[in-house]
Amino acid sequence: LFRSIIFPSQGIDTLSEQADVQMTFHGLMDSMYVKELAKKTHRGLESCALRGLHTGGRCYGYSTVAFGEGESKRYVINETEAAVIREIFEMSVMGVSLKKIAKSLNAKCISPPRSRSSRGKWCFTAIREMLKRELYKGELVWNRTKFVKVPGTNKRRSRPRPVSEWKRLSAPELAIVSDDLWNKVQSRFQNLADTNKGQGKRGLLHRSVTSPYL
Hints:
41% of the residues lie in helices and 15% in strands. The protein contains six helices and eight strands; from the N terminus they run ββαββαααββββαα.
């Protein structure tokens, strides 16, 4: 038993001879509408970022508070979390490895920013990203990444944008660590990278050789 599908809003009936043309036309219009809406949303977020307003997401070390009229919010320093960030930077300058920093924080039962598991443990990858975040020295960087949809699914993946598209804004009131401490940590990262340059990874074959993905 064949049954037709009727779209009341568009006035489309799949039994109609013009159904294919109508579906194609409305699909094209909907696609154009979604892309234009994404551009308008991006322009709105850019305006908020340039005014120093919160554009979404959470950053360890900060809380959000209402600002002005409407639903606008701003970042303010969370002193409890800021103390943890300063401790992480100071341990890094002293030469403590990322894994040892994570182990020390876990031993003190300090709550991590967020965890995908139920254990709620600090991991060295999160600490590495925190040590490279410009916001902690009072520099807000926006438009660093974009999300693209994975074909055939409803999932999205983050992709980096060109550096020329990044928006930088000075926010000294949000600085948690000093410029001197920040520069020392970045210098240590650079020294480690220079030391390990040219040294191959352990193992018989590179991971890309045996990976089933392109």
